[in-house]
Amino acid sequence: MLLKKTNIIILTLVCIVLAVSTFLYLSSTASSLSQTNSRLLSRSCGIHYSPDFDLRCYYYRTHESAGFLLPLALLNPINQDGKALDERDLLVYIPGGPGQGHMTGPDEISHWMEWLKERQSTFDVLLFDPRGTGDGKPAAQCSAYLSKVRELIATAPELSEEYRILNNTLTKCFDEYGQKLAKTFPALDQKHLYDVFATRYQAEDINGMVKSLGYERAHLWGVSYGTRLALAAATYDVVKSLILESVYPFSKGLYNDGIELYRNSFNTHDRLYRSYRKHYGQPVSDYRSLYRRALSRLQEKPLTLVLKSWKDDGEVAFTLTGMRLLEFSFSTLYSPHLYDAYYTGIEAYAESGEVNDALLLSLEYFVNNIVDDQFSATVYFATECLDGQSEKSDDLNFVFDGFPEVEAYFTEGFAYDFCKDYGFSTELAVSDLKYTSKPTLIVSGEFDPITPPDWGGALEEILPEAQHITLYDTGHAGLKGVYCNWRFLNEFINTGNVNVNIKCMAEPLWP
Prior knowledge:
By secondary structure, the chain is an alpha/beta fold. The protein has 16 helices and 13 strands.
């Protein structure tokens, strides 16, 4: 018994020594980085120690004296065999939006640790919240805008009135946040404070973060808008390769593109709906007919509902109108796991006016994404306006096969142009940025409504060293959630060979 107690005491002491040594190592590393680089400030990760990763969290200051504080989370797998930072490869994950953040919280870090461990990653990973998003400082969140959105979606105002109210509220949000920017960047021209959200300036953040952390080789995994940021950052020497998921080329994403994307969404739905009907042994029918029947009911009487809120287990009041059916139809294509519920719900409603559980489920996803308080509308509009996404042609083709509601949707959008009305610098558009010649993997989703596969195919033709892959039975930004032979990721990062064998398979569309 004495021997056992002695062994337990020794084992306990060894564990304590190891824990203290690990803590001192991480603390000294973080401290030394912070002391040698004024742009890094240590912060808590809010997560317990993991035996598989060295985890370090910082704030990165975008300027030596004054600037944004961007939260960083650096995940180092412990299988690095004592390699120094400048001997390792770093994968930087760039979220979409623009306006999406909250990438560095405990839940997100834990998710990435599990994901990387399962795929036996051989590289370090950097997560960060872009300017103005997530837990960064100063954060660009406007509760007044979100409150107004919740208020409006509960009712059925005229589209022009809805645009007017939201534009006025957004202007107030910009003026309010502009005061914070003026304090953060006192040397900037007060008329162009929002220039700080231009893609070319945010690309500088990636270069600065990588170098401040001590790496000499970085690979960028951009998602949606993050692909544009990755393309802009590719000019820096430290960047060695790119993974572009649901890609936004510099020449795409303009207002005029939206018209074509909405038109194409009907064609995509038609393909899917025919497949849905065939799967369930029903006579093949076209989606446009289904859509018209549902639209007719909503024009006669909008559908008022109370849906579950994901944030606080509360409720969200929502009124589905003919105009909102268009947005509902379009946004559903983002997520293949909703297709079955969407068609089941819309069919029942179109035929009998029934609101079944399937319709409630798909509407719940739609509405909760609208009122997502983790998304910054301020950052979204600032970046889009600066990048030149609001550019419009005077000669537009509003041909939507007999859907005047779609024509009205874009016509009203022209009448209320926030970018033009508020005033943004016109010299910062992304259209004059240069494309990269570095190894690039481009990944598209077959049914993606907002960054369709033909955009990825066109970019592959432009880039000298690129491979374009279409993930079948997937929507927008679905790579991380599908089954793949993830060995390709290690191979691509280690070799830069774009001709890696990528085999991915999504879940079946129909249960």
